[in-house]
Amino acid sequence: MTLADRDWRLVREESWDGPMNMALDEIAAETAADGGPRTLRVYRWDPSTLSLGYRQEPETVDWQFCEEEGITVTRRPTGGGGIYHDNYGDISYSIIAPADELPGDLMETYELLCEPIFDAFERMGVDAGFTEEKLPVIHEPACYLRELHPAHDVVANRRKISGNAQYRRKDAVIQHGSLKFALDAKRHLSTFSKPETSAAEFHERVTTINEEVSIDRDDAVTAVEDALRDWGDAASGSWTDDELSRARDHAKAKFGSDAWTRRREDPTA
Protein backbone atom coordinates (compact mmCIF):
# COMPACT_ATOMS: atom_id res chain seq x y z
CA MET A 1 0.00 0.00 0.00
CA THR A 2 1.43 3.34 -1.07
CA LEU A 3 0.20 6.13 1.14
CA ALA A 4 -0.96 9.31 -0.52
CA ASP A 5 1.57 12.10 -0.78
CA ARG A 6 0.57 14.17 2.22
CA ASP A 7 2.43 15.49 5.21
CA TRP A 8 2.81 13.56 8.44
CA ARG A 9 3.73 15.23 11.71
CA LEU A 10 5.31 13.46 14.66
CA VAL A 11 4.26 14.70 18.09
CA ARG A 12 6.92 13.31 20.43
CA GLU A 13 6.05 11.92 23.84
CA GLU A 14 4.02 14.24 25.99
CA SER A 15 1.90 13.72 29.10
CA TRP A 16 -1.86 14.27 29.29
CA ASP A 17 -4.65 12.89 31.42
CA GLY A 18 -6.88 10.15 30.04
CA PRO A 19 -9.75 12.28 28.68
CA MET A 20 -7.31 14.65 26.97
CA ASN A 21 -5.40 11.79 25.33
CA MET A 22 -8.62 10.43 23.85
CA ALA A 23 -9.80 13.89 22.80
CA LEU A 24 -6.54 14.68 21.02
CA ASP A 25 -6.96 11.57 18.87
CA GLU A 26 -10.37 12.74 17.70
CA ILE A 27 -9.21 16.32 17.08
CA ALA A 28 -6.26 14.96 15.07
CA ALA A 29 -8.76 12.95 13.01
CA GLU A 30 -10.67 16.12 12.22
CA THR A 31 -7.42 17.84 11.22
CA ALA A 32 -6.44 15.00 8.88
CA ALA A 33 -9.90 14.80 7.30
CA ASP A 34 -9.92 18.55 6.72
CA GLY A 35 -6.72 18.44 4.68
CA GLY A 36 -4.22 19.05 7.47
CA PRO A 37 -1.34 16.77 8.37
CA ARG A 38 -1.76 13.18 9.40
CA THR A 39 -0.60 12.63 12.95
CA LEU A 40 1.83 10.21 14.57
CA ARG A 41 1.98 10.67 18.32
CA VAL A 42 3.61 9.09 21.36
CA TYR A 43 2.24 9.84 24.79
CA ARG A 44 2.00 8.89 28.43
CA TRP A 45 -0.85 9.11 30.91
CA ASP A 46 -0.65 11.58 33.78
CA PRO A 47 -2.12 10.57 36.13
CA SER A 48 -2.14 6.83 35.47
CA THR A 49 -5.42 5.89 33.80
CA LEU A 50 -7.75 2.95 33.34
CA SER A 51 -9.22 3.13 29.85
CA LEU A 52 -12.34 1.04 29.36
CA GLY A 53 -13.16 -0.69 26.10
CA TYR A 54 -16.13 0.82 24.29
CA ARG A 55 -18.61 -1.87 25.36
CA GLN A 56 -17.13 -2.63 28.76
CA GLU A 57 -19.58 -2.67 31.65
CA PRO A 58 -18.86 -0.19 34.49
CA GLU A 59 -19.52 -2.92 37.05
CA THR A 60 -16.19 -4.50 36.08
CA VAL A 61 -14.28 -1.51 37.53
CA ASP A 62 -13.19 -1.09 41.14
CA TRP A 63 -14.16 2.57 41.26
CA GLN A 64 -13.21 2.96 44.91
CA PHE A 65 -9.68 1.66 44.34
CA CYS A 66 -9.19 3.95 41.35
CA GLU A 67 -10.45 6.96 43.28
CA GLU A 68 -8.30 6.22 46.34
CA GLU A 69 -5.21 5.68 44.18
CA GLY A 70 -5.75 8.75 42.00
CA ILE A 71 -6.27 6.67 38.86
CA THR A 72 -8.38 8.39 36.20
CA VAL A 73 -11.03 6.29 34.44
CA THR A 74 -12.18 7.06 30.92
CA ARG A 75 -13.67 5.07 28.03
CA ARG A 76 -12.04 4.46 24.66
CA PRO A 77 -13.98 4.62 21.38
CA THR A 78 -12.28 1.30 20.51
CA GLY A 79 -13.35 -2.13 21.67
CA GLY A 80 -11.64 -4.65 23.90
CA GLY A 81 -11.23 -4.73 27.64
CA GLY A 82 -9.86 -2.27 30.14
CA ILE A 83 -6.20 -1.28 30.15
CA TYR A 84 -4.39 0.20 33.11
CA HIS A 85 -2.00 2.75 31.57
CA ASP A 86 0.71 3.25 34.17
CA ASN A 87 2.43 6.61 33.94
CA TYR A 88 5.83 4.89 33.89
CA GLY A 89 5.11 1.42 32.58
CA ASP A 90 3.01 2.27 29.52
CA ILE A 91 4.24 3.71 26.20
CA SER A 92 1.28 4.68 24.03
CA TYR A 93 1.04 5.75 20.41
CA SER A 94 -1.61 6.82 17.89
CA ILE A 95 -1.65 6.92 14.10
CA ILE A 96 -4.36 9.09 12.51
CA ALA A 97 -5.01 9.46 8.79
CA PRO A 98 -7.87 10.08 6.34
CA ALA A 99 -9.95 6.95 5.76
CA ASP A 100 -9.63 7.09 1.96
CA GLU A 101 -5.84 6.79 2.19
CA LEU A 102 -5.90 3.45 4.01
CA PRO A 103 -7.02 -0.06 3.00
CA GLY A 104 -10.68 -0.86 3.40
CA ASP A 105 -9.82 -4.28 4.80
CA LEU A 106 -9.33 -4.27 8.57
CA MET A 107 -6.53 -6.84 8.60
CA GLU A 108 -4.61 -5.04 5.85
CA THR A 109 -4.87 -1.79 7.79
CA TYR A 110 -3.58 -3.43 10.99
CA GLU A 111 -0.65 -4.93 9.13
CA LEU A 112 0.19 -1.57 7.55
CA LEU A 113 -0.14 0.56 10.68
CA CYS A 114 1.70 -1.92 12.90
CA GLU A 115 4.79 -1.84 10.65
CA PRO A 116 6.42 0.98 12.65
CA ILE A 117 5.56 -0.76 15.93
CA PHE A 118 7.40 -3.91 14.86
CA ASP A 119 10.26 -1.70 13.66
CA ALA A 120 10.36 -0.07 17.11
CA PHE A 121 10.58 -3.44 18.83
CA GLU A 122 13.38 -4.46 16.45
CA ARG A 123 15.30 -1.27 17.27
CA MET A 124 15.00 -2.17 20.96
CA GLY A 125 16.18 -5.72 20.34
CA VAL A 126 12.80 -7.28 21.19
CA ASP A 127 11.72 -10.20 18.98
CA ALA A 128 8.00 -9.42 18.68
CA GLY A 129 5.23 -10.22 16.21
CA PHE A 130 1.50 -10.86 15.87
CA THR A 131 0.49 -13.88 17.90
CA GLU A 132 0.12 -17.00 15.77
CA GLU A 133 -2.31 -18.70 18.14
CA LYS A 134 -5.52 -17.80 19.93
CA LEU A 135 -4.62 -18.16 23.59
CA PRO A 136 -7.67 -18.54 25.87
CA VAL A 137 -9.26 -15.80 27.93
CA ILE A 138 -8.10 -15.39 31.55
CA HIS A 139 -10.16 -12.39 32.68
CA GLU A 140 -12.53 -10.96 30.06
CA PRO A 141 -12.75 -7.35 31.38
CA ALA A 142 -8.94 -6.93 31.18
CA CYS A 143 -7.68 -6.31 27.65
CA TYR A 144 -4.30 -7.93 28.25
CA LEU A 145 -5.97 -11.06 29.65
CA ARG A 146 -8.54 -11.59 26.92
CA GLU A 147 -8.22 -14.25 24.24
CA LEU A 148 -5.19 -13.31 22.17
CA HIS A 149 -6.03 -12.61 18.54
CA PRO A 150 -3.63 -12.75 15.55
CA ALA A 151 -5.12 -9.55 14.11
CA HIS A 152 -3.87 -7.09 16.70
CA ASP A 153 -2.19 -8.75 19.68
CA VAL A 154 1.61 -8.55 19.67
CA VAL A 155 3.65 -11.09 21.62
CA ALA A 156 7.26 -11.72 22.57
CA ASN A 157 8.16 -15.25 23.61
CA ARG A 158 4.44 -16.14 23.40
CA ARG A 159 3.49 -13.49 25.98
CA LYS A 160 1.56 -10.34 25.14
CA ILE A 161 3.66 -7.18 25.03
CA SER A 162 1.46 -4.81 23.01
CA GLY A 163 -2.20 -4.30 22.22
CA ASN A 164 -3.55 -2.27 19.30
CA ALA A 165 -7.01 -1.16 18.29
CA GLN A 166 -8.54 1.04 15.63
CA TYR A 167 -11.80 2.66 14.82
CA ARG A 168 -13.05 4.19 11.63
CA ARG A 169 -14.89 7.45 11.52
CA LYS A 170 -16.64 8.34 8.31
CA ASP A 171 -13.68 10.41 7.20
CA ALA A 172 -10.66 9.20 9.21
CA VAL A 173 -9.04 6.19 10.85
CA ILE A 174 -7.51 6.23 14.32
CA GLN A 175 -5.27 3.41 15.47
CA HIS A 176 -3.89 3.56 18.97
CA GLY A 177 -2.07 1.08 21.13
CA SER A 178 0.14 0.53 24.12
CA LEU A 179 3.52 -1.09 24.55
CA LYS A 180 4.25 -2.52 27.97
CA PHE A 181 7.56 -1.19 29.22
CA ALA A 182 7.09 -2.28 32.85
CA LEU A 183 4.31 -4.04 34.70
CA ASP A 184 2.82 -3.90 38.19
CA ALA A 185 0.41 -6.81 37.77
CA LYS A 186 -1.15 -6.47 41.22
CA ARG A 187 -1.95 -2.79 40.67
CA HIS A 188 -3.23 -3.47 37.15
CA LEU A 189 -5.59 -6.17 38.42
CA SER A 190 -6.70 -4.04 41.37
CA THR A 191 -8.40 -1.58 39.01
CA PHE A 192 -10.93 -4.32 38.22
CA SER A 193 -13.76 -5.48 40.42
CA LYS A 194 -13.25 -9.09 41.57
CA PRO A 195 -10.59 -10.10 39.02
CA GLU A 196 -10.76 -13.81 38.26
CA THR A 197 -7.01 -14.34 38.30
CA SER A 198 -3.78 -13.62 40.17
CA ALA A 199 -0.76 -11.42 39.61
CA ALA A 200 1.32 -14.54 38.94
CA GLU A 201 -1.06 -15.66 36.19
CA PHE A 202 -1.02 -12.14 34.75
CA HIS A 203 2.79 -12.36 34.47
CA GLU A 204 2.49 -15.71 32.71
CA ARG A 205 0.42 -14.07 29.96
CA VAL A 206 2.09 -10.64 29.75
CA THR A 207 5.73 -9.62 29.30
CA THR A 208 7.38 -6.21 29.11
CA ILE A 209 10.13 -4.46 27.20
CA ASN A 210 12.40 -4.21 30.23
CA GLU A 211 11.90 -7.91 30.95
CA GLU A 212 12.89 -8.87 27.41
CA VAL A 213 15.87 -6.52 27.02
CA SER A 214 17.99 -4.15 29.08
CA ILE A 215 16.96 -0.67 27.97
CA ASP A 216 16.08 2.64 29.62
CA ARG A 217 12.53 3.91 29.21
CA ASP A 218 13.75 7.06 27.43
CA ASP A 219 15.58 4.93 24.89
CA ALA A 220 12.51 2.76 24.36
CA VAL A 221 10.39 5.86 23.75
CA THR A 222 12.97 7.17 21.29
CA ALA A 223 12.84 3.87 19.41
CA VAL A 224 9.06 4.19 19.05
CA GLU A 225 9.27 7.83 18.00
CA ASP A 226 12.03 7.22 15.45
CA ALA A 227 10.26 4.20 13.96
CA LEU A 228 7.07 6.20 13.49
CA ARG A 229 9.02 9.14 12.05
CA ASP A 230 10.84 6.99 9.51
CA TRP A 231 7.71 5.05 8.54
CA GLY A 232 5.76 8.22 7.76
CA ASP A 233 8.73 10.32 6.64
CA ALA A 234 7.34 12.69 9.26
CA ALA A 235 8.53 16.07 10.40
CA SER A 236 8.60 16.92 14.09
CA GLY A 237 5.41 18.76 14.86
CA SER A 238 3.14 20.02 17.58
CA TRP A 239 -0.48 20.80 18.23
CA THR A 240 -1.85 24.15 17.15
CA ASP A 241 -3.39 26.41 19.78
CA ASP A 242 -6.78 25.82 18.16
CA GLU A 243 -6.40 22.03 18.34
CA LEU A 244 -5.44 22.16 22.02
CA SER A 245 -8.37 24.45 22.82
CA ARG A 246 -10.83 22.20 21.00
CA ALA A 247 -9.32 19.09 22.59
CA ARG A 248 -9.69 20.53 26.09
CA ASP A 249 -13.34 21.36 25.41
CA HIS A 250 -13.93 17.91 23.90
CA ALA A 251 -12.18 16.14 26.79
CA LYS A 252 -14.40 17.94 29.29
CA ALA A 253 -17.62 17.46 27.34
CA LYS A 254 -17.14 13.82 26.34
CA PHE A 255 -14.25 11.78 27.68
CA GLY A 256 -14.32 13.30 31.16
CA SER A 257 -18.08 12.92 31.58
CA ASP A 258 -19.90 10.26 33.57
CA ALA A 259 -22.35 9.93 30.70
CA TRP A 260 -19.59 8.63 28.45
CA THR A 261 -17.43 6.79 30.96
CA ARG A 262 -20.14 5.08 33.00
CA ARG A 263 -23.08 4.90 30.56
CA ARG A 264 -21.45 4.93 27.10
CA GLU A 265 -23.57 7.92 26.09
CA ASP A 266 -21.82 10.55 23.97
CA PRO A 267 -22.97 13.99 25.12
CA THR A 268 -21.44 15.57 22.03
CA ALA A 269 -23.23 13.38 19.46
Which features characterize this protein?
about 270 residues, alpha/beta, BirA Bifunctional Protein, domain 2, eight-stranded mixed β-sheet, three-stranded mixed β-sheet, 10 helices, 11 strands, about 25% strand, globular
What this model shows, in words?
By secondary structure, the protein is of the alpha/beta class. The chain has one domain (8-251): BirA Bifunctional Protein, domain 2, CATH 3.30.930.10. It contains ten helices and eleven strands. An eight-stranded mixed β-sheet has the order 7-8-9-10-6-2-1-11, sandwiched between helices. A three-stranded mixed β-sheet has the order 4-3-5, sandwiched between helices. Strand 8 (153-156) and strand 9 (159-168) form a beta hairpin. It is globular. The two termini are 33 Å apart. The mean pLDDT is 94.
Calculate the terminal CA-CA distance, rounded to whole Å.
33 Å
What does the overall shape look like?
A: globular
Average predicted local confidence, pLDDT:
94
The CATH homologous superfamily is named Bira Bifunctional Protein, Domain 2
The largest pleated sheet is described as:
8 strands, mixed
Please give the share of residues in helix.
Answer: 25-40%
Note poorly predicted spans. Answer: none
Spatial sequence of strands, sheet with the most strands: 7-8-9-10-6-2-1-11
Portion in beta strands: 15-25%
Count of individual helical segments: 10
Q: Structural class of the secondary elements?
A: alpha/beta
How many domains make up the 3D coordinates? 1
Radius of gyration, in Å, reads 17 Å
- Could you tell me the CATH topology label: BirA Bifunctional Protein, domain 2
CATH top level label: Alpha Beta
Number of strands: 11
- SSE pattern: EHEEHEEEHHEEEEHHHHEHH
- CATH architecture identity: 2-Layer Sandwich
